[in-house]
Write a structure and sequence with these properties.
By secondary structure, this protein is of the alpha/beta class. The chain is about 30% helix and about 20% strand. The strands form four sheets. A six-stranded mixed beta sheet has the order 5-4-3-8-11-12, with helices on both faces. The longest helix has 16 residues, at about 250-265.
């Protein structure tokens, strides 16, 4: 039996025994007009006035977007958001786009063009978040473990703060999206390492699809809310990285709506544990580097027998 796995950009075909059990992603349809769906979500948000009602022509705006390691459709989200700001008279020079690199590498100009499009890259100021440069950051407070909480200064100084991202089960944060745009996305290195440290990840609730009681998830949300984000735009994606749902508005409420959708869209029960499990990271860009490979191993660990492969 031949099975094609999501692996890299092209996929990987493997030969399996006929008796192997194959668990496939749910075949979920994409939105026919994702650009229009995003615009509608900006104008009919969850728990918030429309984005246009939150901005004035004199405002400065910061828009946080996912870096090259994430499949967030920035090329769809950012033009829609920028269009709303422009319609309210916010000049382009008042808008800063912040690449939420966390502690990842800076993205190249080619990366940015691939993610955002040539026009956006040419017209708008783009800041690559540097988690190791406290001169670029603003101090918020200390967390319960005594670690300092630092967040990108351009974001904190903006009148309007907009977060973007996508929602899916996450290896230890429960779900991506939401507060993860801030922590780790635009947080300082010490802040990230504290949130991603051994004691936090050792908590049994720091795992796939677990939001309630998950210390990593809860701290990321708490820190993000402390920065007073004005608006969030999150999406869910199918296996082809196409938009299935758009969730915009107040950060916690919109993210919760995305999580509720993701629970039904992504999570599947495994009828038993197996001797051998083959799993992937769902392809590029989720498997863009070796660090990300742990996610595929973690998925397999959920279904393999003790001592299995």
């Amino acid at each position: 039996m031949k099975v094609r796995l999501s692996y890299g950009r092209q996929g990987l075909e493997v030969e399996l025994p006929e008796q192997a059990q194959v668990l496939l992603p749910k075949r979920l349809p994409a939105l026919a007009q994702p650009e229009e769906a995003v615009r509608q979500a900006l104008r009919q948000p969850i728990g918030s006035p429309p984005l246009a009602e939150l901005v004035q022509p004199a405002h400065t705006a910061a828009i946080v977007f996912s870096d090259i390691t994430r499949p967030t459709p920035n090329h769809i989200l950012l033009p829609a958001i920028l269009g709303e700001l422009a319609a309210k008279g916010v000049p382009e020079e008042n808008v800063t786009l912040i690449n939420a690199t966390g502690m990842h590498r800076f993205n190249t100009r080619e990366d940015l063009i691939a993610m955002l499009g040539q026009e956006v890259v040419d017209r708008y100021r783009i800041v690559q978040h540097d988690a190791r440069d406290k001169g670029q950051q603003a101090f918020l407070s200390k967390n319960a473990r005594g670690a300092e909480i630092w967040v990108n200064g351009d974001y904190m100084r903006a009148n309007v703060r907009i977060l973007t991202g996508f929602v899916e089960p996450h290896i230890f944060a429960g779900y991506s999206g939401g507060g993860k745009s801030v922590l780790p996305g635009i947080a300082g290195a010490e802040t990230i390492m504290s949130n991603h440290g051994g004691p936090m990840l050792a908590d049994p609730k720091a795992t796939w699809g677990q939001a309630e009681g998950n210390p990593v998830f809860e701290e990321a949300r708490q820190v993000a809310l402390a920065t007073q984000p004005s608006f969030i735009v999150n999406v869910t994606l199918n296996e082809h990285k196409e938009v299935m749902g758009v969730f915009a508005g107040e950060m916690a409420q919109a993210h919760d709506a995305g999580i509720a959708f993701a629970e039904k869209a992504y999570l599947q029960s495994v009828p038993q544990r197996y001797d051998i499990v083959v799993a992937t990271n769902m392809g590029y860009p989720a498997d863009i580097n070796l660090y990300q490979s742990v996610k595929g191993m973690s998925v397999a660990a959920q279904a393999v027998k003790e001592g299995g492969t």
